[in-house]
Amino acid sequence: MDAVLKSLPIRSSSDLKRPTQAEVEAAIRTLLLWTGDNPEREGLLDTPMRVAKAYKEMFDGYNKDPAEELGRTFEEVEGYKDMVIERDILFHSHCEHHMVPIIGRAHVGYLPEGRVVGLSKLARVVDIFAHRLQTQEAMTAQVANTIQDILKPKGVAVIVEAEHMCMAMRGIRKQGATTLTSTFTGVFADSPEDQIRFMTLLRTSTKA
Ligand SMILES: Nc1nc2c(ncn2[C@@H]2O[C@H](COP(=O)(O)OP(=O)(O)OP(=O)(O)O)[C@@H](O)[C@H]2O)c(=O)[nH]1
Ligand SMILES: [Zn+2]
């Protein structure tokens, strides 16, 4: 549990009182009134309950510890010394400013140092951080730094590209604009050559 709390972007659990289901549903009912709709009409009667359930699922990253996902490692495959890259990891997150979706993909690579991790675990780490309120910069750094700290490879490279619905659906209303962020740790941090190789491999495709 301590490890979970350490990885959370919040102060400390003692500062926070988790609301009851009834309190959450009342808050959602207030939001329904804020839209101008009538929470008593038939179609909206169960909406507070459904939204509370949906929030539990969309924000389940607060209850998960990325260290657990990265804890099970395998000995490096003999003879393989190069980068391991999992690209096009699709994710959904929510921006911490407006609580509306961020939709994008993450590309995660690392240079193994003795141990490798199951490929799905890289995507799980992305999802854990995506399922919290985020800025794209923070999420990118959290994914890279967590893999670096727990797996301790020679280096980690993470690139995230995403569309922020708060820029598409409201405010400036620029549909299709995407934000690119990157974090390079370990040997990647000081090696433009490795960063370029990572980006070159990301663009490499054997698909027709
Ligand atoms: N750096 C960064 N900014 C973000 C991210 N998600 C949303 N934002 C921006 O956060 C800013 C919040 O700006 P504010 O002026 O406080 O809020 P606002 O009046 O709703 O801003 P507008 O979106 O310009 O209408 C906006 O410029 C958003 O585009 C993110 O992941 N990273
Ligand atoms: Zn936003």
UniProtKB/TrEMBL annotation:
InterPro entries the UniProt entry points to: GTP-CH-I_C/QueF, GTP-CH-I_N, GTP_CycHdrlase_I, GTP_CycHdrlase_I_CS, GTP_CycHdrlase_I_dom
Residues reported to bind Zn(2+): C95, H98, C166
Known pathway: Cofactor biosynthesis; 7,8-dihydroneopterin triphosphate biosynthesis; 7,8-dihydroneopterin triphosphate from GTP: step 1/1
Listed EC numbers: 3.5.4.16
Family annotation (NCBIfam families): folE, PRK09347.1-2, PRK09347.1-3
HAMAP family in alphabetical order: FolE
Protein name as catalogued: GTP cyclohydrolase 1
Native source species: Tianweitania aestuarii
